[in-house]
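note to self — DONT lose this again. spent like an hour looking for the file last time. sequence + predicted structure for the chain T wanted, 209 res
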Amino acid sequence: MDSTSSSRNRTALEPKRDLGRRRVAALLRAAALVFQERGFEAATMVEIAARAEANIGSLYRFFPNKEALADALMQHYTEVLQQGFEAIAAQARTLSPEALSDLLIDFLVARHAQTRALSALLDSRAESTLTRLQIRAQALAGVKAALVACAPHLGSTEADAESIAAVVLNNMKTMVGMTLKDAPTSAGAPDELRFMNRLYLAQRLGVAR
């Protein structure tokens, strides 16, 4: 194995003390900002260390390369999304389709600050194709679980539940783009999308409730 492959395969160091955990958290926040602003390829370890007001040696101590930094961020984002979807599924049993719709449509927007570099990493990293598919599958499963909790009859029609979840997930992603002005929008467009999603779920989940 050459030195480049060896470096890329090295993993992040797990801090054992509170001071180390706080330092790692600061480094990850800085990395997320730099990746979001400049993209994965353009970002440098020097720039990330400077943004964190940390010594470059401290950055390399915990993260041997940018890949290790990105992997740590992706793992964190996966956990944030999983916890959020589980919380919605737990509430969904007592919610109307319209109330569930509102929770779902704003889900990714509400968590943007916690997952700000997600799109940049997925879009920029050539090796992230599998990760992109895994996170999309995770999100689709999370939406589906919430829908079935709200409308148990969907559990007997897997294809319908998956199709509805896919539509809602795409609406959720569109809402992020509209909110961040990354997608064509106008002042009233997010409210229109929210209204459309309510009508859609009220019709699709309301059957047999």
